[in-house]
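Hi C.,

You asked whether I'd gotten around to modeling the 351-residue construct. I have! Everything is below, sequence then structure, no commentary in between.
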Amino acid sequence: MSVSANESVRTVLEAVVDPNAKESIVRLGMVRDIQVRGGKARIDLVLPSHRYVDKANIVESVERAAAGVEGIEGVTIDERVEVAGRDAGETIADVKNVVAVASGKGGVGKSTLAANIAMVLARDGARVGLLDCDVYGPSVPTIMGRDGAPTYDDERRIRPGRVQGVSVLSMGYMVEEDTPMVWRGPMLHGALTQFLDDVSWGSLDYLVLDLPPGTGDIQLTLSQKVTVSGALIVTTPQGVALEDVERGKTMFDDVQIETLGVVENMSYFICPACDKRHYLFGHGGAKSATDRLGLPLLGEIPVDLAMRIGADEADPIVLRDPDGSAATAIRDLAAKVTTRIAVKNLLRSLV
């Protein structure tokens, strides 16, 4: 009875399609085990990311399909997460996914979003690192707090500091505050190489890279040193920022890094008096740009005074005001980014 019942349940689950990957959840390896005893089915369902989009629908479809099998009187789903990924390269072999957060120009809130995304993932239970790649203008110590100074292990490798459950590393922790970094290109290359080669990140599900604005040496070095899962481009509604989205995508295409999508920061302001959206810097530009480039618009983050204050006071908005509109939008953005990465990894496993 048990063997044939197990097979019957597996057969119906093969028809359940993951709406993200457009493939059977059985073929994708999301169903790890099925046990049927006394008419009760227990299914081990493994999701590839903590905020997997349409997770509730997948779980519901699995339960409904299994319950429809003759002889099944009850269904229990043991749901768990195993972040899908692959080694990002010899230098950071224990890192499953490297996520680059980029912008074509400065001042669009890229570092703030990178830090908040890292915080969301860590709060979900993922093992997360945040690397500030902007040697000239490091922002991570300000946004995350200056308690993240690195140490050294027994092999004299750099051990990143820990802030709010996130492993963090930034040149800003290694120099005195307000000290300018007057370096030429080769020194810049050397610093990033050391951050990748000589750092003991440990086992990570995600390493979020806060890239410097624009296109240049850092991005090229990065593409040569590690396998990047994908890049998120941050922009604002102004035309001058949107023009740089295309340059950013072209750069990532040139170094063979996939652009996951675009997020529009400072997209709108919600008036506390009338609760209406006001588009202070224009509206629709990011959507038209992403449509033209064939990229998804993954999020629109509102203007929020609390986010600016939180960035200045080392209190990221997802912690400072977790139920606010900005934090909600950032959590949704994190879900879309990690789902797109998870789908890539799942489909790669089928090849």
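If it helps when you're writing up: The mean pLDDT is 89.

Thanks,
B.
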